[in-house]
Design goal:
- It is a single chain.
- The protein has about 475 residues and is of the alpha+beta class.
- The protein has two domains: about 1-300, Beta-Lactamase (2-Layer Sandwich), CATH 3.30.450.350; about 305-469, Reverse transcriptase/Diguanylate cyclase domain (Alpha-Beta Plaits, 2-Layer Sandwich), CATH 3.30.70.
- Helix content is about 45%, strand content about 25%.
- The protein contains eleven helices and 17 strands.
- The protein has helices spanning about 10-80, 85-100, 135-145, 190-195, 195-205, 265-300, 310-320, 340-345, 345-365, 390-400, 435-450; strands spanning about 100-110, 115, 150-155, 160-175, 180-190, 210-215, 225, 235-240, 250-255, 325-335, 370-375, 375-380, 405, 415, 415-425, 455-460, 465-469.
- The strands form four sheets. Strands 11-12-10-15-16-17 form a six-stranded mixed sheet, with helices on both faces. Strands 2-1-5-4-3 form a five-stranded antiparallel sheet, sandwiched between helices.
- A hairpin with a 5-residue loop joins strand 3 (about 150-155) and strand 4.
- Helix 1 (about 10-80) packs antiparallel against helix 2, helix 8 (about 340-345) crosses helix 9 and helix 9 runs antiparallel to helix 10 (about 390-400).
Length: about 475
């Protein structure tokens, strides 16, 4: 029996079961991977915060070391009320050697730069009046007002390039140690490339892209300060860093391949996990299909693909136990079949049986069923028989079709005849067993054979003549 001869349920149920299992497992796999990836991304975010904390600590250490220079000089000036050029250059040189990120140190008594170290490369800054440079003067005024060091930047330097600028106000003290008079500013320029060298090292070591920019303000996105500015074009993990004096930076970090590169499960394993539902779905399909096929084969005749005697007995009992309605059983036995086997061989006999089965299958309605009971005996169960004439006509058409020539291999032909016995049930509204119905149809078939065959005989109770030539 091939797939086309199987009922639609037998073919579609395994496909449906296999497909549902594959879809369900695919959904579970997707949910699993989603939560694993979400967990991995959360862990990556936590690592990004740890990386930013390390960056913050490194900047703190760099700035604290750098700010020790102007604060030391400010303390000397406040104590001595002055500082000569020799002492200034000696102190500045020693402090700068200890911190290579410092570009220069300058003294600005009264807000005018009068001394700078080193002089070389910074000549343009000598004589600068902060009041004449609004971008720098704002930080100077804030330092004087708060009496604290103020860091701003990065800013364009008058001597060229950019740098962080610190402004430490100096106030002279009276005999009691109180600040009484403003002296000026100790200025410091810090090379941002040197200051943020640690950021590049941390980024290389941790696998995170790190960027620093001025904290955005209303209408202003924030100027890049160091690191990778493209970090802020994505959704980075961020941390605010407050500079002395009120200015703020925003630190940002994200995986170097972007968040989409963060996967809790490697790509090959992910592919295998997505393949697993397909494999399970295929296995389920094969198991269910095999089960249905075995069940179907148990109810089917392997030669013709028709329902077999077991299926016939089950269906006949079901019709008798169900709601009473007019049904009929037609038993068909082939006439002259043995000579086909004797003359042309059993292969030709099998061909004839398959052809007869196909002709009977094409004859019936969708509600009727053809069975092969064994050997050369067939049966048809008819439901909702409208009239005796309908049953008679079907029996006549069955016999007429069976008698048509049957093509064999090698261009040969053969013919067989058929006899039919018909029984209608339920009979007179009385309960009847399946064996009783079969016996009535079998007796009718016997009479048909006794009358020479190639005809249909119905039970006299049907109301028709015993012989239907």
């Amino acid at each position: 029996m091939n797939a086309a001869q199987m009922p639609a349920r037998t073919r579609l149920v395994p496909i449906l079961v296999g497909g549902l299992i594959a879809l369900a497992m695919s959904a579970l796999t997707g949910i699993l991977l989603y939560y694993v990836d979400a967990k991995a991304e959360l862990e990556a975010s936590s690592r990004a915060y740890a990386v930013l904390a390390e960056v913050r600590d490194q900047i703190d250490r760099r700035l604290e070391t750098a700010l020790a220079v102007p604060e030391t000089l400010a303390a000397v000036i406040a104590a001595e009320e002055r500082i000569d050029d020799k002492a200034f250059n000696a102190i500045a040189a020693r402090l700068i050697r200890a911190n290579p990120s410092i570009r220069n140190v300058a003294l600005a008594p009264g807000g005018v730069i009068s001394a700078i170290h080193p002089v070389r490369g910074n000549e343009a800054a000598l004589g600068l009046r902060y009041a004449d440079v609004p971008a720098q003067n704002a930080a100077v005024l804030r330092a004087i007002r708060t009496r604290r060091t103020v860091i701003a930047g990065p800013l364009e330097l008058v001597q060229g390039g950019t740098g962080l600028l610190s402004r430490t106000p100096v106030f002279l003290r009276d005999s009691e140690g109180e600040d009484t008079r403003y002296w000026g500013i100790v200025a410091l320029a810090v090379d941002t490339d040197q200051l943020f060298e640690d950021i590049r090292q941390i980024a290389d070591r941790t696998g995170f892209s790190i960027g620093v920019r001025r904290a955005p303000r209303a209408g202003s996105p924030g100027m890049p300060v160091a690191g990778s500015p493209e970090v802020f074009s994505g959704p980075p993990v961020t941390m605010l860093y407050s500079l002395p004096g009120g200015d703020r930076w925003e630190l940002g970090a994200m995986p170097q391949g972007g968040w989409q590169s963060v996967e809790g499960i490697p790509g090959i394993l992910r592919a295998l996990l997505y393949l697993l539902p397909l494999v399970l779905g295929w296995i389920a399909y094969r198991v269910v299909a095999s089960r249905y096929r075995n069940q179907e084969l148990a109810r089917r005749d392997p030669l013709t693909g028709l329902a077999n005697r077991k299926s016939f007995d089950y269906q006949l009992r079901g019709l008798l136990q169900g709601k009473p309605r007019s049904c009929a059983l037609v038993l068909i036995d082939l006439d002259g079949f043995k000579p086909v086997n004797d003359t042309h061989g059993h292969s030709a006999g099998d061909t004839a049986l398959r052809e007869v089965a196909e002709r009977l299958r094409n004859l019936i309605r969708g509600t009727d069923v053809v069975y092969r009971l064994g050997g050369d005996e067939f049966a048809i169960l008819l439901q909702d028989v409208k009239s005796d004439q309908h049953m008679v006509n079907l029996a006549k058409r069955a016999i007429a079709r069976i008698k048509q020539p049957i093509a064999l291999d090698g261009g040969r032909e053969t013919t067989v005849g058929a006899s039919a016995g018909v029984a209608v049930f339920p009979l007179g509204g009385h309960p009847e067993r399946a064996s009783d119905v079969f016996d009535r149809a079998d007796r009718a078939l016997y009479r048909s054979k006794a009358q020479g065959g190639n005809r249909a005989v119905a039970e006299p109770a049907v109301g028709s003549t015993p012989g239907l030539p």
